[in-house]
Amino acid sequence: MQVGIDMGTVSGGQPAKLDIEELLATRLLVQGNSGSGKSHLLRRLLEQSAPWVQQVIIDPEGDFVTLSDKYGHVVVDGERTEAELAGIANRIRQHRVSCVLTLEGLDIEQQMRAAAAFLNGMFDAEREYWFPVLVVVDEAQMFAPSVGGDVSEDARKMSLGAMTNLMCRGRKRGLAGVIATQRLAKLAKNVAAEASNFLMGRTFLDIDMARAADLLGMDRRQAEMFRDLKRGNFVALGPALSRRPLPIVIGNVETSARSSSPKLMPLPDAPQDVEDLIFTPDPEEFTRPIVRRAPPAPRPTTDILAELSRSTPAATQPVATESRAGSTPEISEEEREERLAAVLSEILADPQAAYRTDSVLYQEFLVRARMRRVPGPPMAMGEFRRRVAIARAGVDEETAASEAWATALSLSAGVSDDLQGVFLLMAKAAIRGEACPSDLRIAKAYGTHSARRARRLLGYFEEQGLVVVHTDFAGKRIVAFPDLQAETQPGDPNATDDGADVPSAAE
């Protein structure tokens, strides 16, 4: 179904149409300096398309939460754990509810981590929930920076990876990215390059004007025009907008942001005793407590889940919740560990668990732990990944109690979380003198079906000096661990799980 929404007018007063169906397949990049009207453009796009497509807005300043009043968007506060955000994002896709993820009150690194967790939760949704979603990211240069900044490298990689997935791989999952940035030079090129539609607003810096002109296929000498654009005026290009650069004026909007541009106001008449008013302290100032601005308290997760279960916007009356403090009986630490181990075993017993992301498995783990009334704080994501890696290695009690296995666990701490399962699988085979696992077995431990990737993982371990890979005279693979003084028995890399050879491409 082709749906053209009205974005404003072009020269001559004709309506400027944007094809939503085409936009879902080709994505959109909006660029303009502060005050050029980017947020106004995004609001116009969201209001006009709200009846036609599900929307998710990553809102760093909390400007778009007002959409909830008129269009029923669920407001999700970003001050939550990564697991909570991933679970909410997954349910957002299941129930096809539009939402605004507001990150107001968080510092830049917290905003990056929250946005990444939410985007990854949407990206990892089951295939049956891959419905079309318009994902709008305001101030995208914060979440996909072209260079490292003051944030940690881990947060930068996490956020950049989520944005890259959205723009590069999101189309097949129904995710259509709409990203807005103040400066193209600050936005990662691999993220910006995936957009096929562009709306370029007022720009002053030469480097940004040159990049905007290149993206629009304009001559460098024509780039000067971007300095002359008025607020709310943009140059459009793309299959969803126009096949040639087209100046458009963005139309009016029905909702407004909570913040607005500053307006000039005349100063009040100065009183005659102005110096006394300024330099004489008020006695109450010495007794008045210092009030520090705290970020707004997040809404309870139960409230958001209740809204997601409805097909209509949430009611304005607060939902009363009863405290369940003390309802879970106290248990010993040993029994708690037994329950956690049982939950983990249930999850990993599913044949498809090997191919699900850690975030999805972690969310399932938390839900089942609550169902089993496991008391105490939830297990951290890092500890969960560690236990999953050990469980997937399939170590028996005798091996687990050995000094060699303790050394293997220590060595595995030196590799990234996603590689620990593969490393421990190979280490167990070496310690017990078992045949070297096949490419398919290694790939399964990594959560993929690609045998080629399994071979690359072994090459990576060898580059890090952790293993030595060689073959015997029959061409079977052997993996040696110098730090463990152990090596696997020869194993066929092309064998399947049942030991049969994998047929070649020619067969």
Automatic annotation (TrEMBL):
This is ATP-binding protein. InterPro entries: AAA+_ATPase (IPR003593), ATPase_Atu1862_pred (IPR014588), HerA-like (IPR008571), HerA_central (IPR002789), P-loop_NTPase (IPR027417). It holds the Pfam family DUF87. The lineage of its organism: Bacteria, Pseudomonadati, Pseudomonadota, Alphaproteobacteria, Hyphomicrobiales. The keyword Nucleotide-binding applies. Residues 308-334, 486-507 are annotated as: Disordered. Keywords: ATP-binding, Nucleotide-binding. Residues 309-326 have a biased composition (Polar residues). GO terms for molecular function: ATP binding. SUPFAM superfamilies: P-loop containing nucleoside triphosphate hydrolases. The keyword Nucleotide-binding applies. It comes from the Bacteria. Residues 24-310 form the AAA+ ATPase domain.
